[in-house]
Amino acid sequence: MIDFSIEDETRSQIAKVREISEAGLKYSRYYDEHEEELAPNRLPEADDFRGRGVAGRGRRLTATDEALFIFERSSVDGIPLSQGRRDMGNHTLDAMGTPEQKERFSHLSFTFAMTEPGCGSDTSALRTTAELHGDEWVLNGEKIFASGGIRSDGAVVWATIDRDAGRAAIKPFLVLRDTPGFSVASKEKKLGIRAQDTAALIFSNCRVPRDQLLGGNEEVSRTGSGGYRGAMATFNKTRPRVSAVGIGHALGCLRFCKEELEKEGIEVEHGPGMHSRSAAQQMLIEIEADIEAASLSVLRATTLADSGQPNSLEAAICKSKAGEIARTVPQRCLEILGGSGLSREHLVEKWLRDARITDIYEGTGEIMRLIIARQILGYSSEELR
Amino acid sequence: MIDFSIEDETRSQIAKVREISEAGLKYSRYYDEHEEELAPNRLPEADDFRGRGVAGRGRRLTATDEALFIFERSSVDGIPLSQGRRDMGNHTLDAMGTPEQKERFSHLSFTFAMTEPGCGSDTSALRTTAELHGDEWVLNGEKIFASGGIRSDGAVVWATIDRDAGRAAIKPFLVLRDTPGFSVASKEKKLGIRAQDTAALIFSNCRVPRDQLLGGNEEVSRTGSGGYRGAMATFNKTRPRVSAVGIGHALGCLRFCKEELEKEGIEVEHGPGMHSRSAAQQMLIEIEADIEAASLSVLRATTLADSGQPNSLEAAICKSKAGEIARTVPQRCLEILGGSGLSREHLVEKWLRDARITDIYEGTGEIMRLIIARQILGYSSEELR
Amino acid sequence: MISFEPTSDQIMIRDLAKKFAESELREQARPSDESSTTPQGLLDASWQLGLVNGALPEAYGGGGFDRSPTTSALVLEELGYGCVSLGAAVMTPSLFALPVLDFGTEAQKERLLPLFCGEHHHAASLALQESHFSFDPATMKTTAQRNADSWSIRGEKRMVPMGDRASHFLVVARVGDAGLGNLAAFIIARDTPGLTIGPEAEKTLGFQSLTRTTLRFDGVNLPIDAQLGLDPYGGAPSRFDGARLINSLRIGGAALAVGVCRAVTEFAIDYAKQRVAFGSPIAQKQTIAFMLAEMYSEVETMRWLVWKAASQLEQEVDATRAATLADSYVSRKAMRIADNGVQILGGHGYIRDYPMEMWFRNTRALTVLEATAAA
Amino acid sequence: MISFEPTSDQIMIRDLAKKFAESELREQARPSDESSTTPQGLLDASWQLGLVNGALPEAYGGGGFDRSPTTSALVLEELGYGCVSLGAAVMTPSLFALPVLDFGTEAQKERLLPLFCGEHHHAASLALQESHFSFDPATMKTTAQRNADSWSIRGEKRMVPMGDRASHFLVVARVGDAGLGNLAAFIIARDTPGLTIGPEAEKTLGFQSLTRTTLRFDGVNLPIDAQLGLDPYGGAPSRFDGARLINSLRIGGAALAVGVCRAVTEFAIDYAKQRVAFGSPIAQKQTIAFMLAEMYSEVETMRWLVWKAASQLEQEVDATRAATLADSYVSRKAMRIADNGVQILGGHGYIRDYPMEMWFRNTRALTVLEATAAA
After folding, report:
1. How many CB pairs under 8 A join A and C?
2. I need a labelling partner for D212 at 20 to 30 A (CA). Which of A31, A87, B123, C158 fits?
3. What is the per-residue pLDDT for B139?
4. How far is A371 from chain B (nearest CA, A)?
5. Residue A266's closest chain B neighbor by CA?
C-alpha cells in the first residue's frame, strides 16, 4: 500500500534523535572555528544519554529509518555526541569482505581512500599501486579527500594490482593505522564540514598482509569491472545517507527562515495560491517543495534497499536531487534572510558551507547524471562518457 | 562613451514602428488560425503608411536601430503590413555574392534552404548534391524548415559538390522559383509562427546556371570550411535579428501582464526590495530583468557589427540568451496570469508558441553554447563536439 | 510505514487505464486536438472501463471499489501518459461525482450518483476557474448570497470542462470573506434560469480536445438544498470542505502532469537514441543525455510527491501542505520537462507531425489551470 | 546613442585599478581572509592610486576627474576581479565621500571632502544594513526624530564596513513612513555620545577581510546640520535623494559582482583545460564546456546591465528601474556562477588551497549585503 506515514515508534525515536542532536549543538560552531582540533570520540554530553540511545543498539536499523534520523540530526546540525565505529570504508567491508575479514575488522572504523590528486571520478586513472611481495602487498601512492582519515582506525585503500589492466585491476585493501609506511600528509582546510577530519594520506612501501585484500579476489578479470563493483555497492548504501545529511541542512535553513520571519510577522500558509503570497512566502513554499521532493527520492532509494531490491539508479537520482537542493536551498534562504543571515551567530551560513559538499563527494552531480543517463538509455560507459 | 540612451530621432521612428505594427495587429490572430492561407505581400493598411514609412527607405539602417525596431514590432505582435523583399537567404547573398550576383538578384527574396530531414546543425551530414553538367549545376535533394519557402522568389540552397570532401565542399546556390525541378513538397504545420510559410522543398534534377553558385568559388579547399563561412556570416547578421523577435514577444507578454494586473490593482514598483513585493511582483521584476539582459546582449552584438568588428561570439551569446528568455518568459507570464491567460482572446498564448522557435531555428541554444565554448576555450570543432 | 508499493488491486486498475491510454487516447489525441472536439465515442468507450463509477458505492449502482485518491493518482498518471487533455475529458464526470460522494448529503448522493452508474456516459462538471488574472480559489469573486429560502449566485466561471454537454455543474462560490474556509459548492442543473453557458467553446493554448465553456450566473436562484453537503432539514453545518476539494484538484492535476511528463521523457529518449548528428546518436552527447537524466529523475520524484499527497487525502489527514508542495513542484518541473522535450527534438519538436508540440501546449495549460481532475 | 565603448580616460583608470587588483589584491586576499583582517598597508597603498579622491573636485583637494558612475563601475569590476572583499575595503571611504559630494551642502563638502584628499588613507563609512531579516531600505527601522534644534537617532545598524576605523559614518534613517522618499542621511562622527561601535568585528560567511561592526544609536543627538544635504540656514529642502543613493549602492555592488564572476570564470576555464578525466581535459566534456559558456555569457551580460544603470545615474535620469533590474539579474546569476565555479573544481573547489571557495563565500555575502560599494 502506498503510504508515507511514519509509525509512532519511529516518531518517538526521531524525537530522541533531535534531543541528542540538540545536546551536541553547543559544539557545532566551536569545531567549525577550531578545525585544527579533533573533537573527542565521545563528548561529555554523551553520558546523559547512556543507555537511552535510539536504534542501532538493539535491533538492526532499516536504511529508511536511518535516513529519517539523519534528516532530523542534520537539520539540528549534526555534530555527533559520540563518533561511531563506522566510517565509509566500513560499508565496503560489509559489501565485499570475506566472513573472516568481517569478523576480524568490523569493530574498527575505516576511512575510504579512493580519490587521488590526479584522479576523481575517473578511477581508471588511479595511480596507487599494490604489488605482491611474498605474503604481503606493498602499497605506494597518495590519496586525498579521505573523510575521517585522521581519526579512523584504518583505511580501505583502492589500488591497482596491474596498471596495464585498467579498472579491472583496482582492488580495495584494508590498511590499519599503525602499519609502517601509512602516514597522514595533511589535514585539509575546507569551506565547510570542518569538524570532519578530511586528510591526504601517503602510502610509501606500506606492507599489508596478503589476506587484507578485501574480498580476497586476486584475479584480474578481463570482462568485469574488478573492485569497482564493490565501490558501487558501497555508494548505493552511502549515497542515500550523504543525501540525507545535505537535505537535513537544507531543512535546518528552512526552519530557521520560517521561525525568524514568523517573529517578524511573516508567516507561510499553504492553502492560498500564488497571488495571495509575498515574494518571500512564495520562495519558502518552493524551497519546502524542493526539500520534500529530494527527501522522497532518498526514501525511494532506501525502501528499495530495505526490501533487497537493486537501487543504484535510485541512489544516483536521490544523490543528484539532494546535491542540487543542498547547494541551492541555503543560498536561497540567505537571499530571504538578507545580510544578517550571513552572521556566524546563526548556523545558516555554516549549513551553506557544510551542505555544499553534498553535490561533490561520493560522485558529483555530473557523475550522478552520467550514471542515470547510462541506465535509462541502456548505454555502456564506453557509449556515454 | 558608455551610453544606452536612444536618440530622439530613433525614438520617433520606434513610435512609428509601433503605429504601423498596431495597424497590422488585426491580422495576427487571423493568420495564426488560418495557416493554410498565405497573407498577401501587402495588406490593405499598408497604404495608410505609404510614404510615411520608417527608416530603411532613405538611409541605410544600422543593425542596432533595426534591433530596436524589431523589439518594438514583435512586442506588438509582428505581422508586417508589407512583406519585405528580403528573406534570410538575402543575407547570404549580401555576404557571399559577387558584385554581379548582387546586382542581378538583390531585388528578389530568397529563402535559406539548409536543413534536411536527417541533418540539422551537423552540416557535414548534408545530402543534397550539386553536380556540374556542362554549364549547369544539377541539384538533387530535399530541404525542410525553409522559412518563407513558399512566398519567396527563390532559394539559397546549400548543397555539396563533392560528398567525400566534407564541409569544405558545401556551397550555396541561387535557385529561382520557376526553375524546373524545384518544387514545394509541403507546408509545415507548426506550433507557432503560423503566418510564416515554412516549407519542405524538393530539388529533383533541378538545373541551375553555373554562375548561380553564390560567390562563384567552385574550388574545394582542403583546409577551409568552404561555404560554411558564408553561412556563418549570414548567421552573425540574422541571429541578433531573430533574437530581437523572440525578445519582442517576451516584452509583449510582460507588458500584457503588467497592464492587466494593474487593472486588478497589482502594480510593480522598482524601488522597494524583495520583502516589500508580492510573489507576482517579484516574478515580474525578474522577468523584466531577464528581458533587459537579453536585449542588451543583442545590442552588444549589433553595435559590434555596426562598427565593423567581428561579432560571431556575441551573436551566439545573444541568441543563446534570447532563446532562453523567449522560451521561459511567456511560460512564466502564464503562471502569473493563470488559466485565463491561456485564452486565444489574448496574444500571450500565441507569443508563447511563436517565441518558442527562437531557441531552435538558426542554431539551437545547445549549438550556441557549443560555439561560445569553442571560442572561449580556444577549441576547434574537433576538440569540442 | 513508508511504502512505495501499490496494492495488487491498484495495479490491476492502473494497467486497465494504461492499456486504454496507450491505444485509444494516443490514437485520438492528435485528430481531436486539431479539430478541437471531444469525441463522444471515446467517452462512451471509456465508460465501459468503470474509471468514473468504479469508486462509487454499490448502493448507488457503482463498482464498489474503495474511494481511493492513490488509485486515482495511478489512473490519472496513465491517462495523462496517453493524452492529458482527452484523459481529463474522460475523467470530467468525476469532478462532479467525487465531491458529491465526499461531501454530499445522503439525499444528494441518492439523487445524483446513480446518474453516473448507468450503462452510458454521463457528463457533469465542476466550475471553479474565473476570468480575472489574479484568480485564486481562496479569493474567488463568484459569490453565493443566502436568502430566506434560497441561494442567489452571481459571477462568471471560465474554462469549465465539458460545459457543452454536462447535465449538472458543481459551482464553487464564496459565501464570506476570502479564505478556503468560506467556499461553498452548489449543484446547478444545465437548464437553470439565469445560467448562461458558452455558447461558444473557449479556444485556448492547449487542452483543445477537452471542450470548455464559460458559465455566467446572473443572480441564479437555487433552493437551499442545492448547497453541496448541507441537509436543509438537518440543521448541521455543511459537510463541504473547500480546502479538501482544492487539495484533491491540485493532486489530480499533478497526477496528470506526471503522466504527460513520462510520455515526453520516453519519447525524447527514443528520439535521441535514433537521431544522429555529428556521427553519433544525440543521446550520446552529454548535454542531451544529462537533460534526459534530469527529466527521468524529475518524473520519478514528481510521482512520489503526488503519491504522498494522495495518501494523506486517503488517510483523511490534512493534505493541504502536501498538496501545495506537490502542486508547486510539479508545475515548475513539468513545464521544464515538456519544454526540454521540444528542445531535444529541435525543429521536429516545433512541427505538428510529432506529438511533442501538443504535449508542450497541454502541459502549459494543465499547470496553470485549476480543476482538471480530482484525486 | 547606444555605445559600449569606454573613453580613453576611463580605460586608463580601469587599467590602473586592474594592475593593482591583479597584484596587491590577489596576493593579500587569502591571508586577509584567513586572519579576518583588513591590512592597513594595503589601504595606504591603494590611496596612492587616487581611486577614492580622484573623482573629488580640485576645489576640495581632489583629483578633479569628473564624478562618473560608469568609471566607478569599471574600477569596481576590476577590484572585484582582484578580491571583492578587499576591493570593497579599498573603496569604503567612497561610501561616505561620494554621497557627501552628490548630496552635501557646500558647507558639508568644505568640511568633509578635504579629509579624503590628504596623502594618507582616511577611513569613513556608510551605515545602512539592519538586524532584522526582512530588512529593506524602504522600510528600515532606524529612525531620526526632528526636535526643535536637533535630530535624535535611534536604532541599530549592522555589518558597517570598516566600523573599526572610520572617523565618520553616514547613517541612513527613516524620517517618515515607509518609502525611499522618506530616507535621510546623517553625518555622525565616531566619538558622538550615544553611539556604540562594535566592539567586536562581526564574523560572517564571506567578506572576512573587510572588517564590519555593529553601530547602535541610543538616542544620539545631532545638530540640525548633521543632516546630509540640508542647509540649516538656507530653508530649502534637503538635497539628499534616498532612491538615488540606493541605486548607486545597488549598481556599485553589482559592478563588484561582475568582477568576481569574471575571476571565477577565468579560473574555471583554466582549471578545466588542465584537469584531465576519462582521457581528456574536462573542458572537452559538453557539460563542463556549456557551463563555462553560460558563465562567460552571463558575465558579459551582467556587465551591460551594470553599465546601463551606471550611465543613467551619470546622465542624471532616474536610474531606479535600471538599478533594480541590474541588481535582480546580477544577484541571481552571480551566485550561480560562483556556485558552478566550485562545482567545476569539485573537491578542489571545496578546499581552501584554491581561491574558488573564498570567491564562493564572498559572492554569497556580496549579493545579499546592501551597501558594499557606490557607483
Report:
1. 148
2. A31
3. 98
4. 21
5. B275
Query: Could you tell me if D137 lies within 8 Å of chain A, comparing CB atoms?
Result: no
Cα–Cα dist B351/B360, whole Å: 15
Burial of D240 (0-12, 13-18, 19+ CB in 10 A): buried
Smallest CA–CA distance from C296 into chain A, residue: A376
Residues A212 and A151 occupy one common structural domain? yes
Q: What is the dihedral of CA D138, D140, D146, D149, to 10 degrees?
A: -110
Which residue of D135, D276, D339 is in closest CB contact with A340? D135
The C-alpha atoms of residue D14 and residue D18 are separated, in whole angstroms, by: 6
- d(CA D162, nearest CA chain B) in Å: 25
Query: Cα torsion for B261, B266, B268, B269, to the nearest 10°?
Result: 160
Q: pLDDT tens digit string along D320-367?
A: 999 999 999 999 999 999 999 999 999 999 999 999 999 999 999 999
Contacts 24+ apart (CB under 8 A), D47-51: D47/D119, D47/D120, D47/D121, D49/D16, D49/D17, D49/D20, D51/D17, D51/D75, D51/D79, D51/D90, D51/D91, D51/D94
Q: Give the closest-approach CA distance of D10 to chain B in angstroms.
A: 9
A129-162 tens-digit pLDDT: 999 999 999 999 999 999 999 999 999 999 999 9
- Find the domain containing C97 and state its range: 8-116
Q: DSSP alpha helices (H): ranges in D105-232?
A: 106-112
Contact between A287 and A254 under an 8 Å Cβ cutoff? The reply is: yes
The CATH number of the domain where A174 resides is what? 2.40.110.10
Last residue of a domain, one of A201, A225, A249: A225
The distance of B64 to chain A (nearest Cα, Å) reads 36
Across the interface, whether the CB atoms of B274 and A275 are under 8 A apart is answered no
Asked if residue B183 and residue B119 are part of one domain, the reply reads yes
Residue D375 lies in a domain: no
Angle, helices A312-337/A279-306, rounded to nearest 10 degrees: 160
Q: Which residues of A are catalytic?
A: 362
- For A187, the domain range is 88-225
Write down the H helix ranges in chain D.
Answer: 8-20, 26-35, 40-47, 69-103, 106-112, 242-274, 286-314, 320-345, 347-350, 356-366
Cα distances (angstroms) measured from residue D22 to each of B62, D17, D82: 38, 9, 5
In B, what residues contact D, Cβ < 8 A? 1-7, 64, 270-276, 285-286, 288-290, 292-294, 296-297, 299-300, 303, 314, 317, 320-321, 366, 368-370, 372-373, 376-377, 379, 383-384
Burial of C76 (0-12, 13-18, 19+ CB in 10 A): buried
- Cα A196 from Cα A151, distance rounded (Å): 9
- Whether residue A272 has a cis bond before it, omega within 30° of 0: no
Q: Are residues B233 and B373 in the same domain?
A: yes
Residue of A324, A329, A342, A354 to mutate, testing the D interface (most D Cβ within 10 Å of its Cβ): A342
What ipTM was estimated for this complex?
A: 0.96
pTM summary value: 0.96
Assess if residue D1 is contained within a domain: no
CB D202 within 8 A of CB D157: no
Residues B50 and B69 in one domain: yes
- On whether both A187 and A315 belong to a single domain, the answer is no
Comparing CA positions, the residue from B32, B34, B58, B53 lying closest to residue B42 is: B53
Residue B254: give its domain's CATH number: 1.20.140.10
The pLDDT of residue B52: 59
Of residues D327, D309, D310, D335, the one with CA closest to residue D370: D327
C327 interface with B at CB cutoff 8 Å: no
Q: Does D266 touch chain B (CB under 8 A)?
A: no
Query: Pairing mode, if any, of strands B110-113 and B129-133?
Result: unpaired
- The number of distinct structural domains making up chain A is 3
Whether residue A282 and residue B281 make contact (CB cut-off 8 A), yes or no, is: no
- B383 in a domain, yes or no? no
CB contact under 8 A, C2 and A3: yes
